[in-house]
Amino acid sequence: MMNKEHLSKKTFPWAHVIGYVGSIVLTVLALWFTVKAPLSQGSIITILLALAILQILIQLIFFMHITESRGPAYHSIAIALGFLFTFAVVAGSLWVMTFNSQVQ
Amino acid sequence: MINQIVEYLRNADPLIQMSAVAAVLTLLGIIFALTYFKKWGWLWREWITTVDHKKIGIMYLICALLMLFRGGVDALLMRTQLAFPNMNFLDSQHYNEIFSTHGTIMILFVAMPLIFAMMNIAVPLQIGARDVAFPFLNAVSFWLFFFGALLFNLSFILGGSPDAGWVSYPPLAELSHSPGPGINYYVLSLQISGIGSIATGINFIVTILKMRAPGMTLMKMPLFCWSVLASCIVIIFAFPALTVALALLGMDRIFGTHFFTMLHGGNPMMYVNLFWVWGHPEVYIAILPVYGILSEVVSTFSRKRIFGYKSMVASLMLISVISYFVWVHHFFTMGAGPGVNSFFAVASMAVGIPTGVKVFNWLFTMFRGRIRLTLPMLWSLTFIPCFAVGGATGIMLASAPADYQFHNSYFVIAHFHQTLIGGAVFGLLAGMYYWWPKMFGFKLNETLGKWAFWFFNIGFYVCFMPQYALGFMGMTRRVYTYPAETGWGTLNFVSTIGAYLMGIGFLFIVVQILYSIRYGERDTTGDPWDGRTLEWSLPSPVPHYNFAQIPTVNERDAWWEMKQQRKEGILPPTKEPLKPIHMPNNSSLPFFMGLAFFVAGFGLVFNQFIIATVGLIGVVVCMLWRSLEKDTGHWISVDEIKQMEAS
């Protein structure tokens, strides 16, 4: 690990550049699909979801060093909890707010 | 902006005008005293620029006690207004402002900093570390909290306090219903201090996971550290929801968007939902460290190992996860279907199970223990029945059909004060008394402390028990006056007496601290309570590098085991020679970063975008400066350590 750190200081940070370009491309694609693409709403939402998942992976792998670890991999537990809580908030909020569709 | 402030002060209540004058006089007094005693340099070098976790903890503690005073005065003003029917002490607007600031201050600027104070003081010492994982970030967190609190407190003399409750629900909190700067103050001060809270959460998770002394596996860690870990997990997952809710509300108010306004597809219910996604976990953030404090105090003063250590750990972790699935119980009456309400009612009640486990573990720890009734133990003992009643009324509220009756009544007020005072405040006071000798090197006077204890405790029950009854009698929260025919007068009067008794209790704590600074028993051993965990192996107050040599841990109550072995004649293995210690440098950047955030926030409160831009540029400059700084800390030589250890 120490070696790896040492190396990453000396060489050009390619991982960061790939991650940066990748996240920009994904964002522009998402924008293009919502604004310009001649598709039905359902398929646009599906495509956006897929792009979002790719975006998460890029952030985790290229910027948040998910694949590197010194000692126990506590961060994988944290990520799992993060997904659980995100699911709770998003799915829970959708569920909680469904009454709204009946009211309107 | 200046016109707005002058206009506000001219038309304000005489009470507010007087406090404005008092605030200016206090400020002048502090400036005069610091200049007269030539303490500016000392303040700057020793406190404002410090990155030492113990000093940051002490600063959190001082701020929290000052804010407790402010929030307490708010409470007494409210109770005075409600003491008799048709009172004319406060007008409705002033009353609205007071209950809004009381709630916000007590939760965010008293409970949170008190918890951060305890974490900062005890966690690194308990795990045998020299500092937290990110000392600079720790200082940033403190100054963000400090300037957030300052911005919030400025509101009542500069432009008007927030007046839409501590929850600030739209549409009441929108520009259409609250046009003044009050809600802007709320949004921005919470946003600024919230950033600091998230940073503290990350900081302490990393500290606990990565910086434990050799030999201290997770299952040998003191329970307070476990509870802080649980609390920090909740912090980092809950606070972003608040950040989002406040950002959207702020954009509605400052930039004219329509997230919560019912125009152009906005929906105020989404704010309520997001607010409580943070809001309910928040009360667990406040209570979880208290469970840890209680575990430490109960086992120390019963001279026994904690009963059921593993079940304690499991229940802490369970609570931190379940706390995320209960938020809807704050708005069962919003209109969601029976499926939603049933799910969240059951999830809320499920929290009671691990909590019950903890209560029984404390009781079993005390069973056949040699109990010493010191101040920390007294507060812990009263915590248990008080919190149990709070939990029981919580289960009543968690039953969705019953909640339709209790909703927005004084029953709710009584319930959450019972959990937050009887839980968080009692526990945090226990922690304050417990670690006070470690922080300052002297004990607090027990007699004065017992007076405070009894006044506060009796006052508490006198104040809040009548409120349960008032809730059943139909008194709703946030009313500023009521007619005599309601029959609420007597119970309200009793409740007000209780509030004043608690106020006297607080005064006793102040007197106790002032008296003990002069006459308090000095702690020369570093272990005044015959403690069990590593912080008591150090001298009091602790040298700034904490441990001259990092201890090796073999057992759960590490310091207790070391003492037992020494009694049995087993000497600790000969220590290795001292080595130079590497410590982080002090830095003024956290202070300036907080100041820059404050300027930006103040600008945005009054829609003065030039001031706001200046502040935000300041933030960016501070961050750039820090990024380009080559700060590698400094070394403490062996000679210096020897000198420090000998003194």
Automatic annotation (TrEMBL), chain A:
GO MF terms held by the record: cytochrome bo3 ubiquinol oxidase activity; proton transmembrane transporter activity
Topology in the lipid bilayer: Multi-pass membrane protein
Positions of transmembrane segments: 12-32, 44-64, 76-97
Name the record gives this protein: Quinol oxidase subunit 4
Keyword terms: Cell membrane, Membrane, Transmembrane, Transmembrane helix
GO cellular component, as recorded: cytochrome o ubiquinol oxidase complex; plasma membrane
Lineage: Bacteria, Bacillati, Bacillota, Bacilli, Bacillales
Claim: DNA damage is one of the keywords in the record: no
GO biological process terms held by the UniProt record: aerobic electron transport chain; electron transport coupled proton transport
Record-linked InterPro entries: Cyt_c_oxidase_su4_prok, Cytochrome_c_oxidase_bac_sub4
Subcellular location: Cell membrane
Family designation: Belongs to the cytochrome c oxidase bacterial subunit 4 family.
Automatic annotation (TrEMBL), chain B:
Naturally occurring in which organism (per UniProt): Polycladomyces abyssicola
Function: Catalyzes quinol oxidation with the concomitant reduction of oxygen to water.
Biological processes annotated in GO: electron transport coupled proton transport; oxidative phosphorylation; respiratory electron transport chain
EC number: 1.10.3.-
Official protein name in the record: Quinol oxidase subunit 1
Gene transcribed to yield this protein: qoxB_2
Family annotation (InterPro entries): Cyt_c_oxase-like_su1_dom, Cyt_c_oxase-like_su1_sf, Cyt_C_Oxase_1, Cyt_c_Oxase_su1_BS, QoxB
Membrane topology recorded in Swiss-Prot or TrEMBL: Multi-pass membrane protein
A single cellular component GO annotation: plasma membrane
